[in-house]
């Protein structure tokens, strides 16, 4: 009986074999069934794949103050936190430092009531089916690879992006017609009758964009009913990145990322 916490704390881990699916710290399917919380904190991880993978969990998870050096993976995140579908528990991702060569620094999926703050990433943050969560104080520095955006909210509702720092991200931003890019924040559009994309989210980044750019150039809103501070009320863009988004969706389907 009682509350059970699974802890992975203060380890030095090296994953040097196995290709880009290797993980320094790996929680496999069903971890949530054997504990009420997962704590992954103060670890140093080096990996030829990605760093920390929490997959199909159904309990509170905290990933905090880890230092990760990884090759990365083109689809998964260097930190991947994936909940079982329809799991409504909160979680925290904070104070992590991620350096990778490709892919996403953080991938958060099927997440509700999360707080993601004060992380330092040199790769993008990818948010897929994320709801009522709060993102503040994250720094994006010299992003690598060819990301769609520093933050891509593909599907999600009632989230807050506030005071994140993109000043050293290297993101050029989009033109008025949505061409060019990448930029700092991409709010995804409707995928089909079931997936509405990014809806009812707030983006208020207080001008922390690369020099001589602003929210109009750095936040591309393809969703619906979002509020972007710094966008004119009648801001409508016709994106020139549709093909790349389509390629991303195909890659996700091939990897079973929407199951």
List the helices and strands and how they pair.
Layout (H helix, E strand, L loop, with lengths): L4 E5 L2 E4 L7 E5 L9 E5 L2 E4 L2 E8 L2 E5 L2 E4 L6 E7 L7 E4 L2 E4 L3 E9 L1 E4 L2 E2 L3 E7 L2 E3 L2 E2 L8 E9 L2 E3 L20 E5 L10 E2 L2 E3 L10 H4 E3 L5 E2 L13 H13 L5
Parallel strand pairs: 1-4, 2-5, 3-6, 4-7, 5-8, 6-9, 7-10, 8-11, 9-12, 10-13, 11-14, 12-15, 13-16, 14-17, 15-18, 16-19, 18-20, 18-21, 19-22, 20-23, 22-24
Molecular structure report:
The protein is mainly beta. The protein is about 5% helix and about 40% strand. It contains two helices and 24 strands. The strands form three sheets. Strands 1-4-7-10-13-16-19-22-24 form a nine-stranded parallel beta sheet, with no helix packed on it. Strands 3, 6, 9, 12, 15, 18, 20, 21 and 23 form a nine-stranded parallel beta sheet that branches. A six-stranded parallel beta sheet has the order 2-5-8-11-14-17, with no helix packed on it. The protein is globular. The two termini are about 30 Å apart.
Sheet with the most strands?
A: 9 strands, parallel
Q: What is the terminal separation in angstroms?
A: 32 Å
Strand line-up across the major sheet? 1-4-7-10-13-16-19-22-24
* Helix-strand topology string: EEEEEEEEEEEEEEEEEEEEEEHEEH
Chain oligomer state: single chain
Question: Helicity level, as a percent range?
Answer: under 10%
Residue-averaged pLDDT: 85
* Structural class designation: mainly beta
Strand % is 35-45%
Radius of gyration: 17 Å
Q: Low-confidence runs (pLDDT<50, min 5 residues)?
A: none
Rough outline: globular
Give the number of helices: 2
Number of strands: 24
């Amino acid at each position: 009986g009682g509350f059970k916490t699974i802890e992975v704390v203060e380890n030095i881990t090296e994953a040097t074999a196995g290709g880009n699916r290797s993980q320094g710290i790996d929680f496999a399917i069903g971890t949530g069934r054997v504990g009420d919380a997962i704590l992954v904190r103060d670890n140093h991880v080096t990996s030829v794949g990605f760093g920390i993978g929490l997959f199909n969990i159904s309990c509170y998870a905290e990933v905090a103050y880890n230092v990760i050096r990884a090759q990365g993976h083109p689809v998964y995140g260097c930190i991947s936190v994936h909940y079982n579908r329809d799991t409504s528990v909160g979680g925290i991702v904070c104070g992590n430092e991620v350096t990778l060569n490709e892919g996403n620094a953080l991938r958060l999926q099927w997440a509700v009531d999360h707080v993601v703050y004060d992380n330092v990433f040199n790769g993008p943050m990818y948010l897929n089916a994320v709801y009522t969560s709060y993102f503040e104080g994250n720094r994006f520095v010299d992003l690598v690879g060819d990301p769609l955006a520093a933050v891509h909210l593909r599907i999600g509702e009632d989230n807050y992006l506030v005071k994140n720092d993109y000043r050293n991200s290297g993101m050029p931003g989009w033109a008025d017609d949505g061409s060019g890019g990448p930029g700092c924040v991409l709010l995804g559009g409707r995928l089909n009758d079931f997936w509405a994309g990014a809806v009812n989210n707030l983006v208020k980044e207080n001008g922390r964009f690369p020099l001589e750019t602003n929210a109009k150039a750095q936040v591309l809103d393809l969703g619906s009913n979002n509020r972007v501070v710094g966008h004119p009320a009648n801001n409508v863009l016709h994106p020139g990145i549709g093909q790349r988004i389509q390629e991303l969706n195909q890659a996700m389907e091939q990897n079973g990322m929407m199951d």
